[in-house]
Amino acid sequence: MTHPTEETRDLVILGGGLVGMTLALAAAKKGMSSHVIDRADPAELTAEGFDDRATAISTASWHLFENIGIAEGLEEFACDISAIAVTDQNKPGRLDFVPGPDDGTLGRMFPNRRLRLALFEAAAKEPLIHWTAKATVTERQRSQYGVAAVLADGTKLKGRLMIAAEGRQSPTRDSAGITIAKWDYEHRAIIAGLTHEKPHDNVAWEIFYPAGPFALLPMNDDADGTHRSSLVWTVSEKDGAAVMKLGDRAFLAEVEKRMGGVLGRVLSVGQRSSYPLGFHHTAKITAERLALIGDAAHGIHPIAGQGLNLGLRDVGALVEVLADGARLGLDPGDPEVLKRYETWRGLDSFMVALATDGLTRLFGAPGKTASAVRRLGMAAVQRTPMLKNFFMDEARGVSGDLPELLKA
């Protein structure tokens, strides 16, 4: 029997984060084998307290987790988002998104650590996944015959299709010479866990300020009943360092001021992290025996919380075209297979990116007039069920040409 490192597998996935590992598991469910290569140490990524970040998983993404068998173990960590309240600086004229009785939730909040653990545990049990962690790729080879990744220790992992899943700084994308359009919003997102006095009642708050959105996302209560939410606060780049340096009490006071009392007093704030916000989109998401997924292909403003969900739609679409190709006897790296992925995902992800960029600019326009126009627009949406349903379907990720794996 050949050792996994000598075996030519269907996929060589560079990047074993949330998107890369979901792809490996989804491909395995369709009988496709993969090498997954990641720089990080999984023990560090899943350590208690490493990452206070949480992610909103759309309804469609949850179906994907159900279809690859990790939903059951995650269920207990989920906090449903049953409504979204949108306001312009807590002024009158708020917009509420509340799904109908048969529509289910608008998504579920999960600690990133729990998502990673579920994926890593499932991958460790899957014989079709050969996972190499703490590895550096020194050379990427692609030709008409196949692909290979050469590691720093000289190991060569071979396959038929290379997948770039390393995130927004993807070296695989850059070495393939794929051009990228990008601009910087000159803003930073500051992320922290909060405990607060009043229950959140499963409502996600999106409070818009001229510097950017201030979002409060519901998390499960602690075992002792302490109420928790995850904060994503957008500040201008020039204020970012100062806000990060504030002492806990001063930071709490600033947060409380912006919350307008919606969750009562803020009791404590967890570890803060921050990252710069930008938009990037590649001109194409495929090349010879190469496909880009997730942030390697597109990075959007977190205003709508769709970044990871967009990457998981890539996963569903790519697995579907690969499985359809395999049924016709096509190789995973076949240009026809990749072309279908390109046309399917290229436009959809660009439309989402465009919409979130437009929202960012609309809500970022300063001044009283802009605020009045926004509130007028929000009032119009509030009164128009069709528009509301459109936005809710977008949030749930169920609009557009959905891959099978993202359906119930």
UniProtKB/TrEMBL annotation:
Q: Does the keyword NADP apply?
A: no
A Pfam family (short name) is FAD_binding_3
SUPFAM superfamilies annotated for this entry?
A: FAD/NAD(P)-binding domain
Q: Where is the FAD-binding domain?
A: 11-343
Pathway(s) per entry:
Cofactor biosynthesis; ubiquinone biosynthesis
Essential cofactor(s)? FAD
Query: Could you tell me which Gene3D superfamilies the record lists for this protein?
Result: FAD/NAD(P)-binding domain (3.50.50.60)
Keyword RNA-binding part of the UniProt annotation: no
Q: Which PROSITE patterns match?
A: UBIH
Q: Keywords in alphabetical order, please.
A: FAD, Flavoprotein, Monooxygenase, Oxidoreductase, Ubiquinone
Q: Which InterPro entries match?
A: FAD-bd (IPR002938), FAD/NAD-bd_sf (IPR036188), Ubi_Hdrlase_CS (IPR018168), UbiH/COQ6 (IPR010971), UbiH/COQ6_monooxygenase (IPR051205)
NCBIfam families tied to this protein: Ubi-OHases
Q: Which family does it belong to?
A: Belongs to the UbiH/COQ6 family.
* Name the UniProt record assigns to this protein: UbiH/UbiF/VisC/COQ6 family ubiquinone biosynthesis hydroxylase
Q: Which organism is it from?
A: Erythrobacter fulvus
